[in-house]
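URGENT: need a sanity check before tomorrow's submission.

F., can you look over the Transketolase subunit A record below? I want to be sure the sequence and structure line up before it goes out.
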Amino acid sequence: MAITREKVEELTAVARKVRRHIIDMTAEAGSGHPGGSLSCTDILVALYFHVMKVDPKDPDWPERDRLVLSKGHAAPALYAVLAEKGYFPVEELLTLRKIDSRLQGHPDMKKTPGVDMTTGSLGQGLSAANGMAIAAKLDGKDYRVYAVLGDGELQEGQVWEAAMAASHYKLDNLTAFVDHNGLQIDGPIAEVMSPEIIQDKFRAFGWNVIDVDGHDFEDIIRGIEEAVNTKGRPTVIVAKTVKGKGVPFMENQVDWHGKAPSRQQAEEALKALGE
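Structure tokens as predicted:
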């Protein structure tokens, strides 16, 4: 799983495309969640373009690795990654949130190729990922399960029930990411209802805990590699990220949690992101 400099450059280029898609999609839709989509982009790109065993030509391949985007409002990031991976045409991205589109505001596993779990009601994704990981063990399969959670989402009690269960069942085939950008819709997570110290809480529940820079591909891959090699317990990777990453006027600004850019703002964002 080691990563070369050439691969880092390739992933960086894909991530730039994904971020440009996120801006175009939300601007075209006039709604959506750009901030948290931009913050988790590098995590998703690393998983789909370097780590996960998937086949875009056969989205339901039984042996595939699974991903649960528990922070379902970041669907634009997932859709853009899936499109760039080849699950459906890139041109379809501009149908985000439109009537009859396969790309609704939150992921729908029954409509969108490549989506492994319908999400959007925060706090539920880790439980679903647990079920997938348990199923793999019961079936003697070697696929791995990844879940991506928001840090504000950790205020949901069900997350900690799922954390307790994952540890109890020794789900070492499960890796959860926390997109730790420090902001949620109502403001800084520390002011709304602090889930800190996140690492200590997961350790108390019996998890292996890894800290990474969520915008450094080498660090993300290092964390995943350590998670894969950890046996007997699940791993959580706490990824320090920046909400709105890549767009200067969106970075660390809570207003961009659930607000789409205007066309003029989109042009400014695209210019900042580069070709």
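My own read: The mean pLDDT is 97. The longest strand covers residues 174-180. If you see anything odd, call me.
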